Amino acid sequence: MLDPSTAAYVRTLLPRSAAKYWMQRYSLFSRFDNFVQLDTEGWWSVTPEVLAAHQASRSRELCARGLVAMDACCGCGGNVIQMAGVFPVVIGVEISPKRVEMARHNSSVYDVAHKCQFLCADFFKVAPGLKVDALFMSPPWGGPKYQHVNTFDVFYPLVGFNKSLLRLLDVTLDCDGVVAAFLPRNTDLVQLAAVVPEHAVWEVERAYVNNKLKGITLYCHPGRTPDQPNVRLEADAEYMAQGAHMESSAG
Ligand SMILES: C[S@@+](CC[C@H](N)C(=O)[O-])C[C@H]1O[C@@H](n2cnc3c(N)ncnc32)[C@H](O)[C@@H]1O
Questions:
Q1: pLDDT single digits (tens) 39-61
Q2: Chain centroid to CA 148
């Protein structure tokens, strides 16, 4: 943390919105000075390092087998880097070619490039049939504007994603592993409880960094062993129909 007079000085040099993130640079990346790369969206969307490390180790704890992990929307690599600390193989999927290159570069700053693979793709094209031990995602929340609405509606399409959180969870829970989703702090937990399939085992953590509530992390896994039938399939028809209705009426 900067002392108040230095912070005030930085604010005179940079636009207010940029100064806020610059002052947090070491909490985003402790190795920031080793030429970490970020673009504008990367600055405001990266998960703070201490939180990314916690999300990685909590996912690992919940995994039966911790070999392959994936970040579905890896941005500039904040979560991928920390996942590589606890998983031997981490795949980062990212739709922006520029951010894929930044994530790759940043993984080498943290000496974990050898454990990371990057795929420039739309996660929804990668998702069908995906099997990984742990799947993390911090989907786009719609930029800093998400803070100005009372509740973050899980049925509403995520900005720039064209899919709701409901749809995203529906796709990801098929991966059979642990799914962790970092979501806005104003996510409607009652809605969330309603969209997580009944049989799934799940927990929600409030994530504080420097005493500030940064968001919530939902951890979820299908709650069945591989030899058990996928009870979810039976529930899917009704659940999907309801989801589709809610999504279109919200839009
Ligand atoms: C909140 S950021 C992720 C930040 C990342 N967890 C980190 O700590 O650096 C969300 C990212 O999702 C990417 N994204 C958006 N739509 C996507 C899609 N359909 N498939 C994959 N990535 C996507 C955005 O380009 C953005 O970089």
A1: 989 998 999 999 999 999 999 99
A2: 20
Nearest-atom number in ligand 1 for the CA of 136 is: 6
Predicted TM-score (pTM) of the model is: 0.84
- Domains in the chain, ordered, with CATH? 27-221 (3.40.50.150)
Q: Is 169 in the pocket of ligand 1 (CB under 6 A)?
A: no
Residues 129-153 as b/e (b if ≥16 CB within 10 A, e otherwise) read: ebebbbbbbbbebbeeebeeeeebb
What one-letter code names the amino acid at 197?
Answer: P
Distances (CA, A) of 7 to 48, 111, 160: 19, 31, 33
Is the Cβ atom of 82 under 6 angstroms away from ligand 1? no
Per-residue pLDDT of 151-192, as tens digits, reads 888 888 887 778 888 888 888 877 878 999 999 999 988 888
